[in-house]
Amino acid sequence: MSASVSPQLRQHLDLLAAEGIDVVRVTYPDLIGTDRARDVLLEHMPSACEHGLAFCRAVYHTSPQGDVVAVPGGLDAGLPDICVRPDLDTLVTLPWEPGVASCLGEVTDPATGATAPESPRDLLRAVLARCAEHGLRPVVGPELEYFLCEADPASATGWRRYTDAPGSVYTAGLRADPDNHLLRTLRALRDLGIGASTGNHEFDSAQFEINLVHSGALDAADRAFRFKTAVKELARKEGRLATFMAKPFNDGGGSGFHLHLSGEDDAGGNAFDDASEPYGLSGTARHAVAGILAHAPALAALLNPTVNSYKRFGPDTLAPWLIDWGLDNRSAMLRVPPERGSAARLELRLGDASANPYLAIAGTAAAALLGVLAGEEPPAPLEGYGYDPARSAVLPMSLPAALDALEADTALTDVLGKDFTTSFLTYKRDEVERFQRFVTDWEFTEYAYHL
């Protein structure tokens, strides 16, 4: 080992070598939350830490189909680099990959040393810094659902549900999971150390939900990002596909990404709890509710970020499509669970599982901050079963409408930053344009034989 290696790095490398680790996977999220990474042999980690790993910045603007979208700072700038340095404080061993550890990467612009404007992790950091300036320290508990699929060459997509088990919501065991996928996944996530707590079969066949413990917003986003990556990798080890797509099947429901949001006060207590205030919620909590409601149309672009997302919305889906809030009411977009004291919190049910955790949490924190700064009270909470558009405003019902709402919400985009907003809108509008040009199987079936 070179004498120039710092004592901290030497200690990390010695510990990894003692555990039989010879590769470190350095990973970071792209604009849509997909993990981008490079495997580094252990003996080359000193160079990676000192000089960083070079990636093309256009990775942020590359679609799932491999197209590079013409976002400012990408093609027009000659496809410049970003520099990614391993964050050694995030090192974990991968239980399913012998000899491999993983860590998150810190992204900078090598020309300036500043953060890359499209970096979702750094966007969240910037939003949280704004929150901290005003005494708001968000705490988040992520709750994610996904579908597990089996290969099926006879299917048009090449995949089918892992099992057909209707009526198995809130169950565990072999009835809805005959191969014990959930047990293996929970144990691997435990060993990964990302705070997985519980899991169960969800409403639809082959749909699972795994909850993560709450923590500071950046840590929660890191863990949710690593959770999604891990679940997909574990499914591949089984020869299966785990998808966080919002609604993968026509004859089923969708997968949600619920965020449980609270705040920490100066003494480390729950800033959202106040038994003497209306609903047992502090002014900070009620103002946060008002802010999230006010900016919900724009938030939809970040929490429901795909063309497919809006096929999940609709009456009786438990996927909110109206802008409302309620006390322990799961038909509301923003639910306040019944616990108070240290467990007082808001549950934003707007998001679907395809959302980038960093952007979802950044947008929600920004909206809550704007509500706190405005100091306004929310309307009366929803009573009874929701989904009545005569009682509440309707969210955007398509990705183009949501993107327009985000662009129009200048208060929110000022917090998120102009460069990020421009990149995100350009990237997502390209997705819409590509979809609108694409001939679907539905169109062929509907028209080809009759017109």
Mean pLDDT: 93
Poorly predicted spans: none
What is the string of helix and strand elements? HEEHEEEEHEEHEEEHEEHHEEEEHEHHHH
Number of helices: 12
Oligomer: single chain
- Beta-strand fraction estimate: 15-25%
Count the E strands.
18
Characterize the biggest β-sheet. Answer: 10 strands, mixed
In whole angstroms, the N-to-C terminal distance is: 72 Å
SSE order and pairing:
Blueprint: H1 7-18, E1 23-29, E2 35-41, H2 45-51, E3 53-56, E4 81-86, E5 92-93, E6 100-108, H3 120-133, E7 138-151, E8 159-161, H4 181-192, E9 196-201, E10 207-212, E11 215-216, H5 217-237, E12 241-243, E13 257-263, H6 283-294, H7 296-303, E14 322-323, E15 325-327, E16 334-336, E17 346-348, H8 357-374, E18 393-394, H9 399-408, H10 410-416, H11 418-437, H12 441-447
Parallel strand pairs: 1-6, 15-16
Antiparallel strand pairs: 1-2, 3-4, 4-6, 5-6, 7-8, 7-10, 7-11, 7-12, 7-13, 9-10, 13-17, 14-18, 16-17
Helix pairs in contact: 3-5, 3-8, 4-5, 6-8, 7-8, 7-9, 8-10, 9-11
Key structural traits:
single chain; 451 residues; alpha+beta; 10-stranded mixed sheet; 6-stranded mixed sheet; 20% strand
Description:
The structure is a single chain. 33% of the residues lie in helices and 20% in strands. It has 451 residues and is an alpha+beta fold. Strands 7, 8, 9, 10, 11, 12, 13, 15, 16 and 17 form a 10-stranded mixed sheet that branches. A hairpin with a 6-residue loop joins β5 and β6 (100-108).
